[in-house]
Amino acid sequence: MKGLQFIGEYLLLMRRVFSRPKKMAYFRKQLIWEINSLGLGSLLIVAVVSVFMGAVLTIQTSLQSESPWIPTWTIGFVVRQSVILEFSPTIISLFLAGKMGSSIASEIGTMKVTEQIDALETMGINSASHLILPKIAACAIVNPILVIISIFLCLFGGWFACVFMSSIPSEQYIEGLLSFFRAYDVYYALVKTFVFAIIIASVSGFCGYRTKGGALEVGRASTQAVVNSSFSLLFFNVILTKIFLG
Amino acid sequence: MIEVSHLYKYFDEREILHDVSLTFEAGKTNLIIGQSGSGKTVLMKCLIGLYTAEEGQILYNGRNFAQLCKTDRNLILQEMGVLFQGGALFDSMTVEENVMFPLTMLTGKSPSERKERADFCLSRVNLEKSNHLYPSQLSGGMKKRVAIARAIALNPKYLFCDEPNSGLDPKTSLIIDKLIYEITQEFGITTIVNTHDMNSVMEIGDTVSFIHNGILWWRGTNTEILNTENKEVHDFIYAAKYTQQLYNRILGNE
Ligand SMILES: Nc1ncnc2c1ncn2[C@@H]1O[C@H](COP(=O)(O)OP(=O)(O)OP(=O)(O)O)[C@@H](O)[C@H]1O
Ligand SMILES: [Mg+2]
To answer: In CATH, what number is assigned to the domain containing residue B7?
Structure first.
């Protein structure tokens, strides 16, 4: 029952969010600002996580395939597929849900409890759209870029593991990376990331926007934003995978 | 002029405002006083359109807010300046950007015109050198003054101030009160101030309305309030022992 109400309120808010910005020039300025803060702010963590996970994934895969029947190059192939299909779009999006989600919810939540949102409303400005739309747009642009970067860095991490930890010969790893490549997989990964980005920004924006009370509730809203956006993201992951690959 | 008639407001069955009828005239500072929790903020939020009253109507120079279409409502909203209890400055913007914000969003003014207007409003509240500071770098009184500057940026017809001097020392309170009073006279604004500060009442209260448990209990001027027979009002303004003693002494001396 509570869940249904939550979804209903969310949809009502989204109807207000997706409306034409009052001043296009101001919206563009906001958008660039958000891309900067959300995107650049997450670049480092995405890079670090990707390189390490790529390396570990390669080592793990090579340990699992120490059989004379499995050609060594398959390791590169398996790593590439896992990274493109699941690791970068989903795990990195989950990371971003934590990072961006909490920052979006706490920013908007603070604006709510300090009456800044009321101030916008009394100026006749659609505060939901004014605050949340630039964030949704920024995430929808930034996250796919971050995921592409992540894919490359993961594969680089794998190569690193081959060269410096001599898991497997690096030529064979690269051969594996290049075999049976389907552009469709990348397309699937990017669509997924795009949907996840919209979920992260809108659900977190919603959690921030419905905050009532004070600093304590802002903290709660930001936790709630991370939990709710992660769950919705995982749920849509199943649906999208079924649609695209099932 | 704002006319409020027979206003009722409920929150989950709980009656917060009961049959409130009031008129606020242009060029006057109209004070609303009352105990904490009496419904002052709720009344103000009804006036600025953040809450919708269940019954009754509010007329802004004859225009009924609730019955207007969205575009006309926005026009009325743009004629309002609001000073929220905590200032409600935008944290991510500098002082200057805060004051320019309504001009940017709601007018077609060029950047230089906006800057000029912002500078004028800031000088009006005696804050000339803080243009590039962020709200977190300001003191409480400065925040309130910036908020006033932002509220008057669009030349409002109606100015609403919710507890403009709560949390300020008596001297700064006086400065803010005077400022509000002067601006009201200067631009012929209909000003409504929520307060529980008796100094403000005496200093700037052209009209004073006393709200008690959501009911308009008493209404008069700041000279009448001192001699009112009304028990609740009397108890409110003479809550402190020393004011009662002061009052008795004045009476005795007369
Ligand atoms: N959003 C809300 N939901 C439910 N009840 C509310 C809400 N806002 C205010 N109230 C209730 O309305 C009553 C009046 O509150 P209001 O904020 O108007 O008091 P006030 O006169 O402004 O007090 P103060 O001087 O402390 O600011 C209180 O009992 C409060 O609990
Ligand atoms: Mg109040």
So the answer is: 3.40.50.300
> Are residues B117 and B68 part of one domain?
no
Nearest protein CA to atom 20 of ligand 1, as residue: B37
Distance A233 CA to ligand 2 centre (A): 40
Within-domain flag for A51: yes
pTM of structure = 0.90
Closest ligand 1 atom, residue B14 Cα: 5
How far is Cα A158 from Cα A191, in angstroms, rounded to an integer?
25
**Contact assignment for B78 to A123 by CB distance below 8 Å:** yes
B75 with B193, same domain: the answer is: yes
Q: Do B88 and A121 touch (CB under 8 A)?
A: no
pLDDT in tens, A196-222: 999 999 999 999 999 999 999 999 999
Residue B124 covered by a domain: yes
Is A36 an 8 Å CB contact of chain B? no
Q: What percent of chain B has pLDDT over 90?
A: 59
Which structural domain, as residue segments, surrounds residue B121?
A: 91-155
Residue of B85, B89, B106 lying closest to A123 (CB–CB): B106
How many domains would you assign to chain B?
Answer: 2
Distance of CA B221 to the CA centre of its chain: 17
Q: Which residues, at least 6 apart from B249, have a Cβ–Cβ distance to it below 8 Å?
A: none
On whether both B164 and B73 belong to a single domain, the answer is yes
* Residue A5: inside a domain: no
What would you measure as the largest C-alpha separation in chain B, in angstroms? 62
Radius of gyration of chain A (CA): 21
Does residue A9 form part of some domain? no
Do residues B135 and B208 both lie within one domain? no
Out of B45, B78, B88, whose CB is closest to A124? B78
The predicted structure's pLDDT at residue B168: 80
Nearest chain A Cα distance for residue B74, angstroms: 5
- B197, amino acid identity: D
Taking only the tens place, the pLDDT of each residue in A165-201 is 776 888 888 888 888 888 899 999 999 999 999 999 9
Do B75 and B163 reside in the same domain of the chain?
A: yes
Helices (H), B135-169: 140-152
User: What domain range includes position A206?
Assistant: 22-245
Strand pairing of B80-83 and B63-64? Answer: unpaired
Q: Select from B140, B155, B170 the last residue of a domain.
A: B155
Beta carbons of A110 and B80 less than 8 Å apart: no
Same domain, B137 and B176: no
Q: Could you give the C-alpha distances from A215 to A99, A193, A205, A222, B88, in angstroms and in order?
A: 19, 32, 17, 11, 15
Q: How far apart are the first and last CA of chain A?
A: 31
The total of structural domains in chain A comes to 1
Residue A111's pLDDT band (boundaries 50, 70, 90)?
very high
Asked whether residue A2 is assigned to any structural domain, the reply reads no
Nearest residue (by CA) to ligand 1, atom 25, is B36
Minimal-distance CA residue of chain A relative to B78: A123
Ligand 1: list residues with CB < 6 Å: B 11, 16, 34, 36-42, 196
